[in-house]
Amino acid sequence: MAEITLIEAVTQAMAYEMRRDPSVIVLGEDVGVNGGVFRATAGLHAQFGSERVLDTPLDETTIAGLAVGMAFQGMKPIAESQFDGFIYPMMDHIICHAARMRSRTRGRLHCPMVLRAPCGGGIRAPEHHSEAPEALFAHIPGLRVVIPSSPARAYGLLLAAIRDPDPVIFFEPKRIYRQYKEEVPDDGEALPLDVCFVLRDGHDVTLVTWGAHVKETLEAAEQLAERGVSAEVIDLATIKPIDFDTIRESVKKTGRCVIVHEAARTAGIGAEIAAQLAEKSMFDLVAPVERVTGYDVPIPLFRLEMKYLPSVERIIAAVDRTLAYR
Amino acid sequence: MHTVARFHIDYVRYLDEDGQLAADAPAFAADNAVLLDLYRRMNFLRCFDSKAVALQRTGKLGTYASCLGHEAAHVAIGLAMRQEDVFCPMYREYGTQFVRGVKPREVLMYWGGDERGNDFSGPRHDLPWCVPIATQCLHAAGAALAFKLRHEPRVAVSVVGDGGTSKTDFYAAVNSAGAFRLPYVGVIVNNQWAISVPRSAQTGAETLAQKGIAGGLHCIQVDGNDPIAMLAVMRDTIERARTGGGGTVVEAVTYRLSDHTTADDARRYRPEEEVKQAWAREPLKRLRALLEARGIWDQAREDAFKLEANAEVDVEVNAYLETRTQPVTSMFDFMFAELPHDLREQREEVVRWEAGHHG
Ligand SMILES: Cc1ncc(C[n+]2csc(CCOP(=O)(O)OP(=O)(O)O)c2C)c(N)n1
Ligand SMILES: [Mg+2]
C-alpha cells in the first residue's frame, strides 16, 4: 500500500466517494484540468469528466449558491474555495441557506454539501491566502466544521463529511498538506464527525489543538517530556460539534489545559473550550486555562507571519505558567 | 412585437501586429514624443518584470504576478489618468502605477511580504493591490460616487481580469455606475485566462465589454496590445466620465504571456502553440516597428535604453533587498487610529516575549 500526504488523502477520499455515489460532484475554480491550485483535485477531471468535476466562473457567490441549489435537489456537491481568504462572499449562501434549509423547512429540504478550503498561514503566501476562519463558521447554527491534521484523518473525516446529510465546512491545513506521508488504506472507512483524537497520552497538562498546529504542539510535548513533563495532546479535528467528553476526561487527569490555535484570540475556538471547562470542569482544574493563539490582527505578510503564529516556545511557556500552580 | 432596444460593441485598433498604423489613427499618433514615451515605459516595465520573476526564482521574492504582455494596456491607463483621479488596481498593473509614481521597490516589498509596499509613494488616494478578485470595482464605483456627490471633476478607474468579470462585485459595480451615472471607467484586461480557466468558460457572452450594457454604461472593446488604441480609448472614456457623460466598460483584449503567477505552471493546462501565436501579437514589437519605420528607434537605441533601464531596476531591487524587516509590533500599530486596550495588552505581551527571547 502506498504512503500518501494529507492532500493526496483528500483527493483519495473524493475519488472514492465519487466512484461510490454518482450524486457526488466537485466544483470550484481551477479544480478541473488544472487539478486545483494545490492539486487537491488532481486526476479527478480525467477520471470523472466535466460533468462531475466543474470549473466554475470565477465567483465565490456563484460557487456557494450553485452548491446550495444542487444540494437541495439531492446532489452532493463538494465545493472548493481556492483559499481561506476568498470564502467570505460564500457566507451569505452558507449562513442564510445551507445552514438552515433543513430547519426552516422543518426537514422538507436539506443541503448535503461540503465546502472545502485550504486554511492557515506559514507558507509565505500572498495577502488573503493565510487565514484561519474556523470560528466564524463554528458560530453559525446548522454547520459542522472539521479540520483534519493527518493523512488518515483527512481521508476518514472527508468521507464522513461528504456522506453527512448536512452542510460541512472542511478546512485543510495547507501548511501540512505535504508535511509527511502515511499509509491510508483506500477502504472507504469514514471517521466519526463528533470525536477528537488523543494523539499522545500524558498526565501533567492537556494540550488541545487542531490543524497545522498539531505539529508544533506535538513538538512541544516532546520537548516537555525531555524535562519530565508529561503532556497529553488532543487533536480537536471536529471544531463543531466539539467532543468535550474527551477533553474533560483528560483535564480530570491532568488538571491543566493549554489551547493552541493560529486564529485570532478573541472569540476564537479556544474561548469556547475555556468556557466549557469553566462550566463543567472547574473543580478538576488546578491552574487557569491558557491560550496560545494568533493575535487580534490580520496575519502579517510573510516576513513577519511566523511571529504571529504560535511557536513551540510559546506553547512551552504557556505550559510552564500552568505548571507554576500545584 | 417590436424591438425596444438594440446594442452593439465597437472594436478599436489603430496599430496592427506588424506596426502598420491605420489611416483613422488619432492625431497624437503623429507625435513621436508621445510614442517614444509609451515605448520607453513599456520597455522599462518589461525589464522590471523579468527581474522580479528572476528574484522570485532565486528565493528573494515571494509569489509574484507577472505583467508580461499587458504592457500596452497598463501603461496607457496610467498615461490617460490625471494624478487626482483614483486608481483601483487588481495585482499586476505596475505599468499604470509607475506612471502614477509608485516605485518599483514598493511593488517588490509587497510581493516580498512587507505591508509597507502598500504604503506607496504614488498618489496617496489610490488603492493598493487587491487580491480578492473584483472587489476593487465596487470600491472604485464608491470613490466615483464620492466625487460625484462632492462635485469634484475626478474619475475612478478600476482594472479587473476576464475571470473577474464573473464576480458579483463586478456586476454590482457596473450596475451602480449606471444607476448613479458615475465618473467611473471599469477596464477589463482580458488576457484570455483566469489561472487555468479560459475566457470561453467564464461566460456565454460574445464580449466582456457588453457586460456594461445591462448597467447602462458605454461599452467598448479595444486591442489591448495596441498602445495607441488603448491610450486613445482611455483618454476619451476618462474625459467623458469627468465631464458628466457617464461611465464606460473598456475591454482590453490581450494575452497573458507568462504563467498566472510564479506559483503557477501554465503548461499543465495551456497549449504551447497558443502562447507562441500570442507572442506574434505582443505590444512592444509592433510599437517598435512603427518607431523604427519612422527612423526614431533602432537596435543601438534599444540596447542603450535596456542598459539604462536595467541599471535603474537594479537600484530599485537593491533598495528592496536592503529594506530591513519591520518590528514585530508593527502588526499592532496600524490596526486603529488609537490602539484599544485589548490590543495594547497583546502588543505588550509581544514586546516582553521578544525581549525575553531575542533581547
Ligand atoms: C475572490 C477571489 N477568488 C479567487 C482568487 C484566486 N485567484 C487569484 S487570481 C485568479 C484568476 C484571476 O483571473 P483574471 O480575473 O482573468 O485575472 P488575471 O490574473 O488573468 O489577470 C484567481 C482565481 C482570488 N484572488 N480572489
Ligand atoms: Mg485573465
Low-confidence stretches of chain A: none
* SSE class of chain A: alpha/beta
CATH class membership of the largest domain in chain B? Alpha Beta
Number of DSSP helical runs of chain A = 12
Classified in CATH, the superfamily of the largest domain in chain B is Thiamin diphosphate (ThDP)-binding fold, Pyr/PP domains
Spatial separation of the terminal alpha carbons of chain A: 48 Å
What form of chain B results from the Cα inertia axes?
globular
Descriptive notes:
- The complex is a heterodimer of chains A (326) and B (359).
- Chain A has 326 residues and is an alpha/beta fold.
- Chain A has two domains: 3-183, Thiamin diphosphate (ThDP)-binding fold, Pyr/PP domains (Rossmann fold, 3-Layer(aba) Sandwich), CATH 3.40.50.970; 197-323, Rossmann fold.
- Chain A is built from twelve helices and 14 strands.
- In chain A, the strands form three sheets. Chain A has a seven-stranded mixed β-sheet, sandwiched between helices. In chain A, strands 9-11-10-13-14 form a five-stranded mixed β-sheet, sandwiched between helices.
- In chain A, helix 1 (6-20) packs parallel to helix 7, helix 3 (60-72) packs parallel to helix 4 (91-98) and helix 8 (213-226) packs across helix 12.
- Chain A starts with a strand and ends with a helix.
- With 359 residues, chain B is an alpha/beta fold.
- Chain B folds into two domains: 10-326, 3-Layer(aba) Sandwich (Rossmann fold), CATH 3.40.50.970; 330-359.
- Helices cover 44% and strands 10% of the residues of chain B.
- Chain B has helices spanning 32-57, 71-80, 94-100, 104-111, 135-149, 168-179, 227-242, 272-279, 283-293, 299-321, 330-333, 341-358, and strands at residues 10-12, 86-88, 156-161, 184-190, 193-194, 197-198, 218-223, 248-253.
- Chain B has a six-stranded parallel β-sheet with strand order 1-7-8-4-3-2, with helices on both faces.
- In chain B, strand 3 (156-161), helix 6 and strand 4 (184-190) form a beta-alpha-beta unit.
- In chain B, helix 1 (32-57) runs antiparallel to helix 9 (283-293), helix 2 packs parallel to helix 3 and helix 4 packs across helix 10 (299-321).
- The N and C termini of chain B lie far apart (82 Å).
- The complex binds thiamine diphosphate and magnesium ion.
- Thiamine diphosphate sits between chains B (92, 131-133, 161-164, 191, 193-195, 256, 260) and A (29, 58, 60, 82, 86).
- Magnesium ion is lined by residues 161-163, 191, 193-194, 256 of chain B.
